[in-house]
């Protein structure tokens, strides 16, 4: 079996209050809160449902993401990006797209 390369780069995202967060760690802490500590030591590539993430906890997680980063998500997006690693990359991409759009709008 071929071993997959692991992305060790930091995924840093800025919250609406201007604070910078390493996204994987931030998401892991949010998951622990939403799952009442049941997700201690969240693995980067373990499906989040294996930690007991259900729709109620997902909505809480999405609320934290929206409040912190002004990124609105749909429930289906969580299942499309079902691991901490995949979700972090997706959110970083969405934030970058949002920031580029804001810069383009400001330049007009």
From TrEMBL:
> Which residues does the UniProt record annotate as the domain Carrier?
19-95
Question: What is the protein's name according to its record?
Answer: Carrier domain-containing protein
Q: Which organism is it from?
A: Kitasatospora nipponensis
A Pfam family recorded for this sequence: PP-binding
Q: Which terms are listed as keywords in the entry?
A: Phosphopantetheine, Phosphoprotein
Keyword Iron in annotation: no
Tree of life domain: Bacteria
Concerning SUPFAM superfamilies, the annotation shows: ACP-like
Which InterPro entries does the UniProt entry name for this protein? ACP-like_sf, PKS_PP-bd, PP-bd_ACP
């Amino acid at each position: 079996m071929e071993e997959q390369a692991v992305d060790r780069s930091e995924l840093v995202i800025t919250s609406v209050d201007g604070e910078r967060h390493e996204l994987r760690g931030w998401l892991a802490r949010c998951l622990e809160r939403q799952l009442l500590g049941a997700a201690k030591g969240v693995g980067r590539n373990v499906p989040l449902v294996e930690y007991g993430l259900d729709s109620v906890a997902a909505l809480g997680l999405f609320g934290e993401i929206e409040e912190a980063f002004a990124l609105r998500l749909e429930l289906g997006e969580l299942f499309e990006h079902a691991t901490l690693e995949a979700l972090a990359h997706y959110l970083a991409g969405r934030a970058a797209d949002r920031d580029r759009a804001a810069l383009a709008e400001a330049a007009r």
